[in-house]
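Please decode residue identities from the backbone states below.
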């Protein structure tokens, strides 16, 4: 038996940092607008008929006990489900380490999905996301709420987080985004999100909350000019929460270059910042122009919003 699971990488438009536990503990709520993308992480799980756990990712591990696995995601989920020796293989559509696209959460969700299926346990997508967050925080306590719920639950949506309550989802019309082509541009810079998130000024992040309301209103009223203005203001305010977000000269150069391009209407660096991918919302049908302008500074990948979250099959 082999189980294959895949989970999208999420893209956040506004509200990042308000989903951190420290922020919600202080302000009692956080809110983001995001969508899962058409880029995925992939997990395969199958019996290997040996007495070893075999874990394949950028490295290969063969160990006797699940607790000995160095890959944090594989170790925590295998230990949780009390599964004996199997082979677990990790793959992804892009270079996901330090991407700002919640790759670690996406992988954790996909592993939870695959191993729950392997055990014959029926979990809803919401239950998978809740469990994935709980397990990921064992090795990364700064994991934000949006990283799992934004990846594993499909659709263009607003997610509200409240202290001691389950998240609330409000789905938005994805057709609004069809005015734009969307691209991710790799900065070529890997960073630890932990160091950036530790530097975030929680109080400065509070200014992002009203922008979530304003961005939602712009989407619902189909006002693209206001949407672009709020989106870019959110990026400006996000940069003010930590000097590590854009302290690299290459990131500063790319940010300025994208912001000055008349075919690009909205720009932001994904995730915690400091590296990873820029998100660009551009005119339609300018892919050749985009590649001509930016191929020399970073790999460009075209994306769309995805209606599906995590999925798995048995073969």
């Amino acid at each position: 038996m082999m189980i294959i699971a895949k989970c999208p990488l999420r893209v956040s438009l506004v509200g990042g940092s308000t989903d951190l536990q420290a922020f919600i503990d202080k302000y009692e709520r956080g809110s983001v607008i995001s969508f899962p993308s058409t880029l995925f992480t992939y997990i395969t799980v199958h019996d290997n008929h040996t007495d070893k756990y075999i874990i394949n990712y950028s490295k290969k591990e063969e160990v006797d006990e699940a607790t000995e696995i160095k890959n944090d995601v594989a170790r925590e989920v295998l230990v949780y489900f009390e599964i004996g020796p199997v082979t677990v293989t990790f793959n992804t559509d892009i270079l996901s380490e330090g991407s700002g696209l919640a790759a670690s959460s996406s992988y954790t969700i996909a592993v939870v999905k695959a191993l729950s299926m392997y055990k014959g346990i029926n979990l809803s997508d919401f239950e998978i996301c809740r469990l994935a967050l709980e397990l990921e925080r064992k090795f990364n306590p700064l994991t934000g709420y949006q990283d799992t719920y934004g990846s594993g639950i499909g659709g263009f949506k607003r997610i509200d987080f409240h202290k001691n309550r389950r998240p609330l989802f409000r789905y938005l019309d994805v057709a609004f985004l069809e005015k734009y082509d969307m691209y991710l541009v790799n900065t070529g810079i890997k960073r630890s999100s932990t160091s950036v998130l530790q530097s975030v000024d929680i109080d400065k992040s509070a200014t992002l909350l009203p922008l979530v309301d304003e961005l939602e209103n712009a989407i619902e009223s189909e006002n693209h000019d206001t949407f672009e203005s709020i989106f870019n203001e959110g990026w400006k305010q996000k940069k003010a929460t930590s000097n590590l977000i854009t302290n690299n000269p290459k990131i500063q150069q790319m940010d300025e270059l994208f912001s000055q391009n008349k075919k690009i209407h909205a720009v932001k660096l994904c995730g915690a910042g400091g590296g990873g991918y820029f998100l660009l919302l551009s005119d339609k049908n300018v892919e050749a122009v985009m590649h001509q302008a930016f191929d020399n500074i970073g790999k460009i990948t075209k994306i769309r919003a995805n209606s599906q979250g995590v999925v798995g099959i048995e073969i």
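Observation: The chain has two domains: 2-172+307-314, 174-303.
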